[in-house]
Design a protein that fits this description.
The structure holds two protein chains of two kinds. By secondary structure, chain A is mostly helical. Chain A folds into three domains: 21-174 and 382-539, no CATH class; 176-361; 548-699, no CATH class. Chain A is 80% helix and 0% strand. Chain A is built from 27 helices and no strands. The longest helix of chain A is centred in the middle third of the chain and has 36 residues, at 233-268. Chain A is elongated, with a radius of gyration of 29 Å. By secondary structure, chain B is of the alpha+beta class. Chain B has one domain (4-65). In chain B, helix 1 (14-35) runs antiparallel to helix 2. Chain B is elongated. The chains are: A mainly alpha, B alpha+beta.
């Protein structure tokens, strides 16, 4: 039976059964991976097989591509960390305190980098930092063997990575590439539904929620795309087209949102004739994104759509002629509104065509895909939070080291290491407090498991087979814990405690007292890292959320002053990322609607800024710029009023916008309709978008 | 080819060198096969790729250790 047919028959099972099956497959793969790593490490007499097992447990993720991606960055981080440690040791081997300061500084730097980057790159930096701790401190007392210790560490990590990669890729793999295909197909289907809701008369009300769903889909798409690169050779070939797909998807859905807002505004302002003139084109647009009146299920089925939309664009002149004749019957204001909305409609159609083109190209597994627009998927990292995380990690490391030296604590090393790992980990997640709570819970659950295993299971294990049997229930429990929603970090904490505390070495030493002291050291380390979150520059989730919202509003500065080239995608990626960040930090039970609505409105206002600036630049090129300085001053005044959430100033600005719009309408009426008045129409479109954006901003509960 | 490589005092098996040498070669070959669409005819792609790598790595290793 081929894999696709097997997957299709699995699709028919009930959802909970499928989820449970996936969870238990994950448990099986993780446990097998750990046991394989232990087996190889014992067979080759590596110094600490336990660390290879820890590696497997840490890179255990539900999909093969993700495991491979995380492995890649783990290996890279370990390599770089090992090299830096050797350099530090070569220079500072005779100066203990200086060495500690250097390690602390390096860990601080890497932790800041981990907070700055996203996803598994962040993880690579995390590794890069604490590897110096892991190699540096044991090697400091034994400098002649420093290189051997470093090589040993890299070998152990490699063994763990190879075992995990092997098991995850080969034994009943769950592939990121398959999920990616599903997400791409679903996204396109959602886009078509969104188009229906956004362009139909009296369209759906929950567009903001859909738009945020799109933001999540986009983040998901990007993560899956990165993961599939490591897993699926066909994804490597498609990669640039996939990147273009998510870019086009983002862009096209925003254009639709802007169009929808303007259609709403037409209705509210009572421009019924203008709305009626647009209706035939809107319903054609709705019909043309379908194939045989149905939403296409795959890229192959979607192939005709791009051509259909292209056809619509080619006869756009006729559409405009229709609108012109319809415009004769309405007042000059209605005419300007009609032409401006028509411009937005054209943009929406163009972007939908670009999306459909890229989507259809995904079908082919061959290279090519020339002429695909390139988008940059930036994330909005926060320099302040990264710096705070870095400084905190460095401070914690120095404090624990000082305590270690002052008390000559035998397990100071475990505590210092865990404190460094904890700090770096907490700095790289969106909600550190929650992560710390989960991690601590995992450690606390791991402690009794460790004691039970060490007291009863381990002494009875008189061979590798028996050892596997004894470890099996404990490992399976940890892996199962990782599959529970929201408990992934608890599972990681459990494994860290259990496997590190067990300290499997070859030959195995059995010493209950030193195991207990070691476990205490581990607990103390994670405890210090957790405490540091509350003591050094508190990481209160609510404060972080407020900060994300402030940054969200401040991202308008980018739209107002950034270089116009490729500004729209940059701005949008930033706004979407910040909205998702704010939503991830909302208090439990808190409403997400406000954050969604704010993100939505900021997108609108920024879009209007960019549109206006583009229109002015176009007019300036044609040497008919009216007064670019006035527009820039107006944009600045808007930025100020939005940042201060000043309702009075906003009202004043909206009135001024009305005047500007009236002037533009007169200009349009005075001009010859046949000559190129595109720039004026574009300006009217920008002014109208800005006005609806500002009105909406006043109505967002949070912003009031 | 000696069986161990001296990495400034640390002896590592030269199989490791074979492994590292074969990685980029495999990466290239893998990309070429994917571009040619050959993987559509393979049942278990990852198993096939793994075996392909083992064969390549084993060939070089055996050649050196012979």
């Amino acid at each position: 039976m081929n894999a696709a047919r097997l997957a299709a028959s699995l699709e028919r099972l009930p959802l909970w059964l499928r989820q449970e099956a996936a969870a238990w497959l994950f448990v099986t793969r993780t446990v097998l991976g750990i046991l394989l790593a232990l087996g190889i490490a014992f067979r080759f007499d590596l110094s600490s097989p336990g660390s290879a097992a820890v590696t497997v447990s840490i890179i255990a993720l539900p999909q093969a591509g993700m495991v491979l991606e995380k492995s890649f960055y783990r290996l890279l981080g370990t390599f770089l960390g090992a090299i830096v440690t050797l350099l530090m040791l070569s220079g500072l081997v005779q100066h203990r305190d200086l060495f500690i300061v250097a390690v602390a500084a390096w860990i601080g730097l890497c932790t800041a980098a981990a907070a700055w980057f996203r996803g598994f790159q962040a993880y690579g930096w995390l590794l890069c930092g604490y590897t110096t701790c892991l190699i540096g401190f044991p090697a400091f007392g034994d400098a002649t063997h420093a290189l051997a210790i470093a090589v040993d560490r890299v070998t152990i990590v490699s063994v763990g990575i190879l075992s995990a990669g092997l098991v995850n890729a080969v034994i009943l793999p769950s592939r990121s590439a398959d999920t990616l295909v599903q997400v791409v197909r679903r996204s396109f289907g959602d886009f078509v539904s969104f188009l229906d809701a956004a362009t139909a008369p009296g369209g759906a009300a929950r567009l903001a929620t859909t738009q945020q769903q799109f933001s999540r889909d986009l983040a998901n798409l990007e993560a899956l795309r990165a993961a599939s690169l490591f897993e699926d050779p066909a994804s490597r070939v498609r990669n640039s087209r996939l990147a273009a797909f998510s870019g086009c998807f983002m862009y096209a859905s925003t254009r639709l949102q802007v169009l929808h807002r303007q259609l709403d505004a037409l209705e509210q302002e009572g421009h019924d004739a203008a709305l009626a003139a647009l209706q035939p084109t809107l319903s054609r647009f709705r019909a043309l994104v379908r194939v045989a009146a149905a939403i296409p299920g795959s890229a192959r089925e979607a192939a005709p759509i791009a051509g259909q939309l292209q056809h619509l664009l080619e006869e756009w002149g006729e559409r405009q002629a229709e609108w012109q004749s319809a415009a004769e019957r309405v007042d000059s204001r209605g005419r300007a509104a009609l032409l401006a909305t028509g411009l937005l409609l054209r943009e929406a159609v163009e972007n939908a065509r670009a999306l459909a083109t890229v989507y259809a190209q995904l079908h082919s597994s061959r290279g090519g895909g020339g002429g695909v627009p390139r988008f940059r998927h930036g994330v909005a990292s926060d320099a302040l939070l990264a710096t705070v995380g870095g400084v905190r990690a460095a401070a914690v490391l120095m404090v624990t080291c000082a305590f270690w030296i002052a008390t000559a604590w035998p397990e100071g090393f475990s505590a210092t290491l865990l404190a460094a790992v904890g700090c770096a980990l907490f700095a790289s997640v969106p909600n550190p407090t929650l992560a710390a709570r989960q991690m601590c819970m995992g450690f606390l659950v791991g402690l009794p498991a460790l004691l039970i295993c060490y007291t009863w299971a381990l002494p009875a294990a008189n061979g590798f087979g028996m050892l596997c049997l004894g470890l099996l229930p404990f490992l399976a429990f940890g892996a199962w814990l990782m599959t529970r929603p929201g408990q992934t970090l608890s599972g990681s904490g459990y494994f860290l405690m259990f496997l590190t505390g067990l300290d499997l070495t070859s030959p195995m030493k059995y010493d209950f007292i030193s195991m207990c002291i070691n476990a205490l050291g581990l607990l103390a380390g994670i405890g210090v890292a957790t405490l540091s979150l509350g003591v050094l520059a508190p990481a209160d989730p609510d404060w972080r959320r407020q900060r994300a919202l402030r940054l969200l509003i401040r991202s308008l500065h980018l739209a107002a002053h950034g270089r116009l080239e490729q500004l729209q995608p940059r701005f949008e990626a930033r706004v979407r990322d910040l909205t998702l960040q704010a939503m991830a930090l909302r208090p439990t039970g808190g409403s997400v609607v406000d954050d969604e609505a704010l993100g939505f409105v900021i997108l609108d206002i920024g879009d209007a800024f960019i549109r206006w600036r583009t229109a002015i630049a176009a007019e300036a090129r044609e040497a008919q710029a009216r007064d670019p300085g006035a527009a820039a001053a107006f944009i600045d005044a808007t930025l100020d009023a939005v940042a201060k959430r000043d309702g009075r100033a906003l009202g004043q600005l909206i009135r001024e916008l009305e005047d500007l719009q009236t002037a533009a309408v007169q200009e349009l009426a005075a001009g010859d309709p046949d000559t190129a008045l595109c720039a004026v129409v574009a300006r009217v479109a920008a002014l109208r978008t800005l006005r609806t954006g500002l009105t909406d901003f006043g109505e967002v509960p949070h912003a009031a | 080819m000696p069986r161990e490589v001296d990495l400034s005092g640390v002896y590592v098996p030269s199989l490791l060198v074979a492994f590292v040498v074969m990685l980029p070669v495999f990466w290239l070959l893998d990309g070429m096969l994917a571009r040619a669409g050959l993987y559509r005819w393979v049942w278990h792609i990852d198993l096939f790729r793994l075996c392909l790598f083992v064969v390549m790595f084993g060939t070089l290793g055996l050649y050196w250790y012979r």
